[in-house]
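for the writeup, i need someone to sanity check this before i put it in the appendix. the sequnce is what the collaborator sent (i think, or maybe the updated version? ugh). structure was predicted straight from it, no edits. if anything looks off just tell me and ill rerun, i have time this weekend
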Amino acid sequence: MNLRLGMEVPDTDAEGPGRRYAIWVQGCPMRCKGCCNPKLLPFEGGDSVSTDALTQRILEATRRHDLEGISLLGGEPFAHAEALALVCRAARDAGLTVMIYSGFTLAELGEQGPAAQELLSLCDLLVDGRYERDLPDTTRRWIGSTNQGLHFLTDAYTPTDPCFSDAETIELRWQDGELLLNGWPLAGQQGRVIQ
C-alpha cells in the first residue's frame, strides 16, 4: 500500500519524547487558520512511498540512531489511517512508541471508521484538536495551542515525566539544497537549536 509523504526526518527530538522518526503526511481535510504546514494541505504533491519501504527506512534509522519512537504529523495522519496503521503496527512490533498529531479531537476520532480506530489503537501519545493560532500554548512542550489536548493512551509515558515541560526544540537541517525547519518553538519561549 502507498501513501503520500510531505517530509521525513529520520532522527529528531523536536517532535515528541526521545529520539524519533518524524513523518509528515501530504494531505489534510482541515484548514486551520495559521497552519504551520500549509504546503501539506493538498492531497496532491509530496512523494508516493510504499508502507513497506517506509517501514524499512524506520527500522534502519532505529538501528543507526537508537530511536525511541515515531511521530506522525501532517497534513492529517488520520486521513491516511489505513496505510499508517500498517507502518505503526511494524513500529510497535519493533519496540517503538507512536505519537500522533491530529486536528481531529479524540471524540471525533471515536466516530470514524475501522482504519482510524486501528491507527488510534496503535498510538501511545495523541495531540488532538485543531491548531488555533490565536491560542498559543507556552507551557506544554510539543503542543501548538491551548485548546489542544495531550492524551496518554498507553502506559508508555506519564504526564509527570519532566520531558513534557522542557523547553521547545527547533531543528534546522540542510537537505537536498533546502533548509528544513522542524519543532516550531512559539514566540517568547526559550528553546535550543540543534544543527
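The CA atoms of residues 172 and 181 lie 5 Å apart. The longest helix spans residues 51-65.
thx in advance!!
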